[in-house]
Design goal:
22 strands; alpha+beta; Methylamine Dehydrogenase, Chain H; 3 domains; 554 residues; 4-stranded antiparallel β-sheet
């Protein structure tokens, strides 16, 4: 759908870049930077809400800054960065056809733009620019077949050498020796890796086979094991008995950059996409398992308590469990991902518990995962019960519930609370559940009667994740509502926990703080718009019923 047209330049617009300014505030704005073939660059400020409400042809963008320079070389690449510690200062990187780079700083408060640094960075066209590490680091690539890293130092940027330092990557081929140009680069979500697009030098390939099929490649370069602008976290402990091909310096930088990245994901405004962080940790479990154990345990201690000294590896599970009710839902999602994708599998395949028969550490992470998911399930049940009470109040007061999220599975959740009532659920949940019991069948859709879609035999509630009918058919339950999932309609699937979701949750569940988990007065019941897993917080994948994928459906 075309929203509108912005007449930005008199000549061809060669490149654009976007950034959100003042993310998380009630009046977030959208920054748009446009580069032109005549060498000019402009910064525009737009209202995000206005983009959804603007009339056809009227785009709510205002020109706020113009880069004034004598250079006429066309702009080939630009990148914007808004440092978290200084939201009113915007860093603008400009790459030109001549190979030069410029850094400009635009002050949103004074509406002034000044040049920070300019230098000749490449011999040919700059084809890619990407800020990283909160604006401390800038990556660039060019048609001269080079990809470079620049670190901010005083009033200029200094180049540092990029290298992947994982042991199994040291023997891999250097793609820069086989390629002739770089066409672009991008940064992984967790900022532990960059990807560079390279075209291959056809003269260096096998003329019979490779030339016909291999035109370009994407090179992935790990960057987290070195200094990339973020100060080193010297609190990280390196085991003296650590046996690894990585140096202590590499481990320190990996640990420091990983902890910095995970800290950023505690902000609910940042979408939970951390595949590169998980990949790094899974590699460390092979090369440095003792270091990984220490690193993740230290992170969990800070995550749950804010004090890494208050939880000991010797007897932590009970105390950590006691802290979980006071932890945000986003932190529990991070904890679940780390436990499930890294720590539980580490001992299953690679860790000392698997080799020496010591199951104590494995049990710790498994128990922590179970308790974290139990806490999330209680919040989910409490959230649903609170939504029922709020909708009931709306109906009583004559308030419209149009476009509001409609809770389902109340009877099944009531059964789950009954199964875990004896001291295993919070007092708050027991209290709100008593209000639900008073409403009973007056709740819309309240029914605990379920039947098997294959044989129509009754299905009794025994587990929130799976059900088995009288004829022994195994049926998945929705992870968000505990009702039986449809066998004929498309469902949502989580690639992390493997759960199936039939009913999406509103985003207000994923931004919950523990102190307001059952406060129906402040509950936001806006309809669900983003498919997120209630136990991992990541984007769900669409899955189709098996019979729809069959070549010969019965």
């Amino acid at each position: 759908m075309l929203i509108g047209v912005l007449q930005a330049h008199k000549s061809c617009v060669s490149v654009i870049a976007w950034q959100v300014l003042s993310a998380g505030s009630s009046k977030s704005s959208l920054l748009l930077a446009t580069g032109c073939s005549d060498g000019s660059v402009k910064i525009w400020l737009g209202n995000i809400e206005g983009l959804n409400q603007c009339a056809s042809g009227e785009v709510p963008f205002a020109l706020v800054a113009v880069v004034a320079t004598d250079l006429s070389s066309p702009v080939s690449s630009i990148s914007l960065a808004i440092p978290a510690q200084s939201q009113h200062e915007v860093s603008l990187a400009i790459g030109r056809v001549s190979g030069s780079l410029e850094i400009w700083i635009w002050n949103a408060s004074s509406n002034k733009i000044e040049i920070f640094s300019a230098w000749h960075a490449h011999d040919q066209v700059v084809t890619g620019l990407q800020w990283a590490m909160d604006g401390y680091c800038l990556f660039s690539c060019s048609q001269d077949n080079s990809a470079r890293c620049w670190i901010s130092h005083e009033n200029h940027l200094e180049e540092i050498f990029m290298h992947s330092n994982f042991p199994e990557l040291r023997e891999s081929a250097d793609l820069s020796e086989l390629s002739d140009r770089c066409y672009g680069l991008t940064l992984a979500p967790g900022e532990q890796m960059i990807a560079v697009v390279r075209s291959l030098d056809l003269n260096l390939l096998n003329q019979m086979y490779q030339v016909r099929t291999q035109k370009a490649v994407v090179e992935f370069i790990w960057i987290g094991g070195q200094f990339v602008g973020i100060p080193l976290d010297r609190s990280i402990d390196i085991c003296s008995s650590q046996s690894t091909d990585l140096s202590s310096s590499n481990l320190m930088w990996w640990g420091s950059n990983i902890l910095w990245s995970l800290k950023k994901y505690e902000n609910v405004e940042k979408r939970l996409v951390i595949w590169d962080v998980v990949a790094v940790l899974q590699e460390l479990k092979k090369s440095a398992p003792a270091f990984l154990e220490t690193l993740v345990h230290s992170w969990v201690s800070v995550l749950l308590s804010g004090d890494p000294q208050c939880v000991s590896i010797d007897a932590p599970s009970r105390s950590m469990h006691d802290m979980m009710p006071y932890v945000s839902t986003r932190k529990l999602h991070l904890l679940n991902i780390m436990c499930r994708k890294v720590m539980v599998s580490i001992h299953t395949h690679h860790g000392p518990g698997a080799e020496n028969g010591n199951e104590e550490t494995t049990d710790f992470w498994s128990t922590l995962l179970v308790r974290s998911e139990t806490e999330l399930r209680e919040r989910l049940v409490g959230f649903t019960f609170a939504a029922v009470l709020k909708r009931t109040a709306y109906l009583f007061n004559g308030t419209s519930t149009e476009n509001c999220w409609f809770p389902v599975g109340v009877a099944q959740m009531d059964s789950w609370v009954t199964m875990n009532y004896d001291g295993q659920v919070h007092d708050q949940l027991q209290s709100i559940r008593s209000k639900i019991k008073d409403l009973g069948s007056r709740i819309d859709g309240y029914s605990d009667v379920e039947s098997c879609p294959y044989c129509s035999s009754p299905v009794h509630f025994e587990s929130p994740d799976v059900a088995i009918c009288g004829e022994r058919h195994t049926l998945p339950r929705c992870r968000a509502s505990m009702i039986l999932c449809s066998v004929v309609q498309p469902l949502w699937h989580c690639v992390c926990c493997g759960g199936t979701v039939n009913k999406l949750l509103p985003e207000s569940f994923f931004t919950m703080q523990a102190s307001t988990m059952h406060d129906e007065g402040s509950l936001d019941l806006s309809a669900a718009s983003v498919p997120l897993c209630p136990f991992c917080g990541i984007l769900l994948q669409r899955s189709m019923p098996a019979f729809l994928l069959s070549t010969s459906p019965a």
